[in-house]
């Protein structure tokens, strides 16, 4: 598996996080997280269960608020936005939840149509249909357009979830365990799709995963969350060139495809 070198704009930071702190009662989860994600870059976040990865992306998406620190997304300080401004900013972010968050009672077409029509006023039928067909063909699900989510396989559901976020042409993608529960072959298909999205749409992404094959092949940089801070950030190779047991443990206990 080989990823083509993406075009990353080093001068354009799309997500900037400084000194982020988040606790739940006495339980400190994030204790001073710093991270920059550049335009066109995929950053993978690794960390043990409960280390705060989902909390981090929920804060970036404005679904949860930090106790301290700065989070700028597409040049906006999210803590300073009104609810309306936050809603507008969220339209530029695609969020792939673990369960793909499809509506079970709607067909695939309706699942894609619903957020699209809601976010664009006075849009005509032909434009809607064209947008749905383009996105479904990008994720190779056009044949499943009239199927219900329950009729789709796990991999198809992940692709449908990605398709739904792509309808709004996001500038940022937040993937929460995109390959979890998938067999290795289907995982590789999702890995390719994540890289296709990055290449074709120049998105800046954060990818949370426990799957080191996914980390290795999607991440331009890997950030490892340990005890509430990023203990190591760099390329896959750089990050794992260490004997630090907090980091090396991920590598030792993972099956990684080349
Ligand atoms: N709304 C909440 N209220 C209280 N505690 C919370 C809340 N959300 C998360 N936590 C706690 O924050 C910690 C980090 O949770 P988080 O879901 O971010 O972990 P994670 O790294 O994504 O784990 P996993 O890999 O298992 O998904 C956990 O201890 C969790 O119990």
TrEMBL record:
Which residue spans adopt a coiled-coil conformation according to this UniProt entry?
A: none
- Which keywords accompany this UniProt record? ATP-binding, Nucleotide-binding, Transport
Record's Pfam families?
ABC_tran
The ABC transporter domain extends over 15-252
The GO terms this record gives for MF are: ATP binding; ATP hydrolysis activity
**SMART domains per the UniProt record, alphabetical:** AAA
Which superkingdom does the taxonomy of this entry point to?
Bacteria
- Quote the protein name from its UniProt record: ABC transporter ATP-binding protein
Organism expressing this protein natively? Chitinophaga parva
């Amino acid at each position: 598996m080989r990823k083509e070198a993406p075009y990353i704009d080093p001068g354009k930071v799309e997500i900037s996080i400084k000194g982020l702190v988040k606790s739940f009662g006495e339980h400190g989860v994030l204790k001073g997280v710093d991270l920059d994600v550049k335009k066109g870059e995929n950053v993978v976040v690794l960390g043990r269960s409960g280390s705060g990865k989902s909390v981090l992306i929920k804060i970036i998406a404005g679904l949860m608020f930090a106790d301290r620190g700065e989070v700028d997304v597409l040049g906006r300080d999210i803590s300073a936005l009104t609810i309306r401004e936050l809603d507008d900013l969220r339209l530029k972010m695609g969020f792939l939840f673990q369960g793909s968050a499809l509506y079970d009672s709607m067909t695939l077409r309706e699942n894609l149509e619903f957020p699209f029509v809601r976010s664009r006023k006075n849009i005509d039928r032909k434009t809607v249909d064209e947008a749905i067909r383009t996105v479904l063909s990008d994720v190779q699900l056009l044949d499943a357009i009239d199927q219900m989510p329950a009729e789709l396989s796990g991999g198809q559901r992940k692709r449908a979830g990605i398709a739904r976020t792509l309808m709004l042409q996001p500038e940022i993608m937040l993937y929460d365990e995109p390959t979890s529960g998938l067999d290795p072959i289907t995982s590789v298909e999702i890995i390719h799709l994540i890289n296709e999205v990055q290449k074709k749409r120049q998105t800046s992404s954060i990818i949370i995963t426990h799957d080191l094959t996914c980390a290795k092949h999607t991440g331009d940089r890997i950030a490892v969350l340990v005890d509430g801070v990023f203990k190591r950030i760099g390329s896959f190779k750089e990050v794992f060139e260490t004997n630090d047991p907090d980091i090396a443990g991920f590598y030792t206990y993972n099956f990684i495809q080349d």
